[in-house]
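Q: Convert this sequence to structure tokens.
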Amino acid sequence: MGVRAIKLCFTSPLHVGERGLGMEEVSTMIHSDTLYGAIYSLWCRVYGPPEGHLPLRLSSAFPYIRDEYYYPKPYLALASLSDPDLRSIYGKGVKRARYVPESLFSPWIQGADFSLTELEKSQSRLAEAITRELRPRVALDRLSQDSSLYQVAEVHFCRDWDCGLYFLLKTESDDLWRQLGPVLKLLGEEGIGGERSSGYGRFTPTFVEDFSCPGLEGGKNYLTLSLVYPADPSETRGSLLFYRLLKRGGWIYSPRALGNHKHLRLNMFAEGSIFSRPIEGSIVDVAPAEFARRYHPVYRYGRSFLVRVK
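A:
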């Protein structure tokens, strides 16, 4: 099946936590493991538990502005920055960039030069369209009624810019694609990410057929648009070129479990990492042993979503 895209047009602020200080750190993207977990959970409610894992492959969710799709910054060197003068002017901006528009992503993965001024402009557009804010909150002690102040970071998508997040999807059949419609609409009503009980993470999905995914035909290396957790050490032995590791943890949400339970933590390869050969990745059970015995497994999605690069 071809690549399809789903746009998430947010109607409320989004809170997707990042590692850092309490609730004050927030991401402007949704990682593929979070997306899969949310889809799988609602799939079980709508259709019942599937046999095994859902037969789909998905990317993480990145920003879009109107018809301009952003991709993760590739961990590939830019030939332009070998010039000391250009490096002194643009080096810090390139380093700070997390996402690049398709018009610059395509030449980047081909090893071609492009305008670094355009890269600066794209980052300015993104900063205007998608903003972060800190909202103060007050927590009351249940016994003493003492109050304590804390802050929650939230991401806002400017409606005047027609922006949001999108992710890419490959399915094994058209039937699965059709079945995903009600699941994603329900997910949009209930919200994704943290603070959903406060109304965060609501969105309206838009389904884009026959999406044209960038990639270098005949490219000998591979860039992942999703988080990757190798199935075994042999998958990455001798194939790692440029990469970043991301530690993933979090809490388990389950209507069958009592109390709070943490996932087992994993180190995963981040979006934009480069491999010299295709890597499959895996879906791994991150439930603590006691939780798995009493309740059920908890799956973290770590399959790759690859595009060819030079």
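The chain has six helices and 17 strands.
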